[in-house]
Amino acid sequence: MTKLTLDYHYVLPFVSLEEIKSLEEVSNQCREKLLKKTGKGNDFVDWVKWPQEITNDEIAKINACAHRLQNLGQYLVVCGIGGSYLGAKAGIDMLKDYYRIDEYKVIFSGNSFSSTENYQLLEFLKDKDFSLVVISKSGKTTETAISFRFLKELLKEKYPQDYNKRIVAITSNANSALHTMALNEKYEEFFIPSGIGGRYSVLTAVGLLPFAFKNYDIEMMIKGSRDAYNHFSQDDFLENEAMLYAAIRNLLYKKNINIEILGFYEPKMRNFGEWWKQLYGESEGKEHQGIFPSSVIYSTDLHSLGQYVQDGRRNIMETIVNIVHPSNDLTIKNTLDNLDGLNYLNGKSLDFVNKQAMKGTIIAHSEGMVPNICLTIDDVSEYSFGYMAYFFMFACGISGYLLDVNPFDQQGVEAYKNKMFELLKK
Ligand code: PA5
């Protein structure tokens, strides 16, 4: 099975192979810090070996819980913010069919203070059978807690005898108000290991329970991530895509390229981009440093941001993810009148056109002085999701260490909370 490859051909006009190789030693040191827990934030690197450590019992417990919730209704509300929902949203959007109406539906809540969104969700759920997974490692995040309060009230109204059977809490078991609530009210509970931070938690119950509710094969996801761990933790620098990715983006950053755009040519990857933005933005944007992460869906966004990328300020790099095998394809056929002038594509597949758009854009953008890293994955599958999510997390750890920041804290997030709490007179 092809896993993930990295092509740096369109980076070489901007950084030389010698420059890339010059980071081999320091990259190895960064990897050792991750693997041996000797770097900054070392009490938050348990995600590194998690694919090896998650037990079959835990996976079976997650699948059993998902089936129990399916029997209670076709809707599951996942209440969480940041790392407590973005991974699940990314995976579900990646794996679901575009227009098929799935039997089991996951709705995300608790990720904004929007009164309109919260109100309309409560209205929508009034006549639906639903369960609720509330996810908060700290157990006290305000957006999530408020939404949970409303949703729990609705559950109590609808199911006064056994509303608590419809609530699952995913939290830490230390100092979490949510854990105390779960004990008091007897919710089923899963624990996020204390050494795994929110944005590195997608392969724990945080992501796996919503995936299992959608009937996705979570064992294949873990297999993908385990294979990724085995490769990235052992293989040499020049054969190690995670280390190369981390090294190249740091070399470009030192050349004043401080914006990275992650691009896909498959619209359902948009939320993978959202997950990636949080992972890299929250891990590296500190001490007045770091690449600003942004994401696009091409060719759609070539008709909006494409102009800027081609001709705007030259401080951008792109990382383009190529998916070799689309889930489906179509063949373009001749028409008699050829009024739309498309007969030159007779017999070509739509995916072929998409791939030529990708290749042409990579060439145009790199000629326009935007370095392009090209990642290739085989397909859209549970295995690829697990492999690619792990790739980006492992690379992020190394990249943060190359930048010499702590990739596992997020002190900056507290600033808005403190000001907001002052205004709310907490
Ligand atoms: O990566 C992180 O740790 C954060 O983005 C958190 O996931 C986010 O702030 C939500 O926190 P919590 O799960 O404690 O509610």
Task: Tally the structural domains.
Answer: 2
Shape: globular
How much strand? 5-15%
Order of helices and strands: EHHHHEHEHEHEHEHHHEHEHEHEHH
In short:
With 426 residues, the protein is an alpha/beta fold. The protein has 16 helices and ten strands.
Describe the structure.
- By secondary structure, the chain is α/β, with parallel strands linked by helices.
- It folds into 2 domains: 5-41 and 233-411, Rossmann fold (3-Layer(aba) Sandwich), CATH 3.40.50; 50-219, Rossmann fold.
- Helices cover 46% and strands 13% of the residues.
- It has 16 helices and 10 strands.
- The chain has helices spanning 17-22, 24-36, 50-53, 56-72, 86-95, 115-125, 142-158, 177-185, 205-213, 218-232, 241-254, 270-284, 306-311, 350-367, 382-403, 413-424; strands spanning 4-7, 75-79, 105-109, 130-135, 167-171, 188-191, 259-264, 292-297, 316-323, 372-377.
- A 5-stranded mixed sheet has the order 1-10-9-7-8, with helices on both faces. Strands 3-2-4-5-6 form a 5-stranded parallel sheet, with helices on both faces.
- Helix 7 links the parallel strand 4 (130-135) and strand 5 (167-171).
- Helix 2 crosses helix 15 (382-403) and helix 5 runs antiparallel to helix 12 (270-284).
- 5-phosphoarabinonic acid is lined by residues 81-84, 136-138, 141, 144, 197-199, 282, 410.
Task: Give the tags.
5-stranded parallel β-sheet; alpha/beta; 2 domains; single chain; 10 strands; 426 residues; Rossmann fold; 46% helix; globular; binds 5-phosphoarabinonic acid; 5-stranded mixed β-sheet
